[in-house]
Amino acid sequence: MEATLLQPFLEKKHDESRQGEAFAPFQEDPIPYKKHFYIESYGCQMNFADSEIVASILKEAGFGATRNIEIADLILLNTCSIREKAEQTVRKRLTEFKKLKKAKPSTLVGVLGCMAARLKSRFLEEEKLVDLVVGPDAYRTLPQLISEADGGQRSVNVLLSREETYADIAPVRLNSNGISGFVSIMRGCNNMCSFCVVPFTRGRERSRAPQSIYDECQDLFREGFKEVTLLGQNVDSYHWMPDLSIEEKTGITKDHYNRQPVNFAQLLEIVALISPELRVRFSTSHPKDITDAVLHTIARHENICKYIHLPLQSGSTRVLQLMNRSYTREWYMAKVERIRELIPECGISSDIIAGFCTETEEEHQDTLSMMSLAKFDLSYMFFYSERPGTLAQRRYEDDIPLAVKKRRLQEIVDLQGRLSHESNKRDLGKSFKVLIEGNSKKSDQQWMGRTSQNKVIVFPKNEQQLQPGDYAWVQVKECTQATLIGSIL
Ligand code: 5AD
Ligand code: SF4
Predict the structure, then answer these.
(1) What ligand is nearest to the CA atom of residue 379?
(2) Which of 201, 205, 309 for mutating ligand 2's site (highest number of atoms within 8 Å of CB)?
(3) Residues with beta carbon inside 6 Å of ligand 1?
């Protein structure tokens, strides 16, 4: 096997993946396996984390990971349904597999994730070359589905679960840089934002047992990881309720954390206490749910990163109401002010949707003014894409012409560019503790790392023998819109 195949690939693909259309081949396992699977992931960080659970299940079933699609016995696409474009990308990819399948008909092709959950068995009918369709809560059944498919049967399992959290499965880190790990703390979403397909594809909200989260984070730290990101569609509604009836019935006493109800603020603290050397991040928060207790916890622990991703979606109260976001423009702004009061140095980023149903020019201006008021450091910006089955699709007309959506989106993108640049300029002269992730893209004479606020910073290597995973104090000397440029103190 070539040495290069063992190197981690696409180190920070996760950040770009939040925008929906990235894919990630992965690190190979040096153990010789008889059968190999190849997996590409699209969509959010949760999906990337799920692919690592899938890899673990497949490894148990005797499949090794490969980055070489040509030798794969099983090709998997872990898909995203969040916007139409994400689905189109997957469809295009599937047609590209046709040639491969022709050359080697025994290769199985499987669709996992949100598109599988949304389209169910229709996938088998529409996309003739798909052998397996497996929803986000059905990955444990993969080995069985694969053997059915091997026997010539086309297999589907898209059942959603109220309990599945894959708590006991140790993810195989596929596309990790060995420094930042992603840990899923809950699954599903109960929010029902009217634009969003996730409640339909990922089902009801459920929280994973805190002990298993703690154990996974601790294992990562022991393996040399320096940063964990706790993942959930809505982390602030994390709520673990122990099933005390098991203890009563069996007399087996569980450890402390599994006997107390645990909320997100407490979970953050539990993870932060693993080590001051381990940075803790989390994503995504819902403005209506993030509590003062969470903010105080962030403020209290140096190693909980001072960064909150707090999707605004729209700056107009009327549009927010149509989106079923349960907050107003004023309420959101008050939340931003509260964050800045309790954590003055906190970075705040947002998701914004341009051209939601019936959005007027004035309401679009409200979004722009809100972005300036909140001074977002970064935003992920999209134009509205109607998704089948969502509340918005059923209730409202998708009446903003595409050209208008795109123009509004461009105005949002341009403004965010200026806000990000201003935010970076405010950091000139300041010093930050930076976690080094690797060489900068441009030069192996420079390090690239991140500040607690999640900003990318590059700086020349000096005579200190630093390496990826080390912390360094760096002073900001210059900046662009996207990057801080500094030097080691
Ligand atoms: N159209 C456009 N953007 C969407 N998002 C979710 N659903 C849609 C949609 N139908 C965006 C939201 C969300 C992010 C993950 O994707 O901004 O926060
Ligand atoms: Fe896409 Fe599903 Fe992730 Fe949402 S939850 S971003 S729909 S993969």
Answers:
(1) 1
(2) 201
(3) 82-83, 195-196, 311, 313, 351, 353, 382, 384-385, 387
pLDDT digits (tens, 9 = 90+) for 395-439: 999 999 999 999 999 999 999 999 999 999 999 999 999 999 999
Ligand 1, residues 45, 381, 382: which to mutate, most atoms within 8 A of Cβ?
Answer: 382
Q: Which residue has the tokens 């001051």?
A: 276
Say how many C-beta atoms besides its own lie within 10 A of residue 163's C-beta. Answer: 9
User: Tokens in use for 89?
Assistant: 């990308």
Structure tokens at 10: 């696409």
Gyration radius (Cα) of the chain, Å: 23
176-305 belongs to which CATH class?
A: alpha beta
Task: Tell me the CATH class for 431-488.
Answer: mainly beta
**Under a CB-based contact definition with an 8 Å cutoff, are residues 158 and 117 in contact?**
yes
136/176 Cα distance (integer angstroms):
21
- Which CATH code fits 26-157? 3.40.50.12160
Q: Mind listing the pLDDT tens digit for each residue in 296-307?
A: 999 999 999 999
Closest CA to 179 of 460, 434, 418, 461: 434
Which residue minimizes the CA distance to atom 5 of ligand 2?
198
SS3 of 49, please?
helix
CA of 195 to the centre of ligand 1 (A): 7
Q: Which of 353, 357, 400, 416 to mutate to test the pocket of ligand 1 (most atoms within 8 A of CB)?
A: 353
Domain 310-426 indexed as CATH 3.40.50.1820: no
Q: How far apart are CA 401 and CA 151, in angstroms?
A: 48
- Reading the block at residue 370, the tokens are 């809100």
Residues 6 or more apart whose CB falls under 8 angstroms from that of 101 comprise 107, 109, 129
Chain CA centroid to CA 154, Å? 30
Same CATH fold assignment for domains 176-305 and 310-426: yes
Q: What CA–CA distance (Å, rounded) separates 250 from 31?
A: 40
CA pair distance 182, 436, nearest whole angstrom: 17
Domain borders along the chain are 26-157, 176-305, 310-426, 431-488
Q: What is the model's pLDDT at position 30?
A: 61
Distance 18 CA to ligand 1 centre (A): 10
Q: How far is the CA of 65 from the centre of ligand 2 (A)?
A: 23
Please state, in angstroms and rounded to a whole number, the distance separating the CA atoms of residues 406 and 401.
9
* 141 cis-preceded (ω within 30 degrees of 0): no
Nearest to 354 by CA among 310, 394, 395, 414: 414
β-strand partners of 112: 78, 134
d(CA 375, CA 346) in angstroms, rounded, equals: 11
Q: Whole-model pTM above 0.85?
A: yes
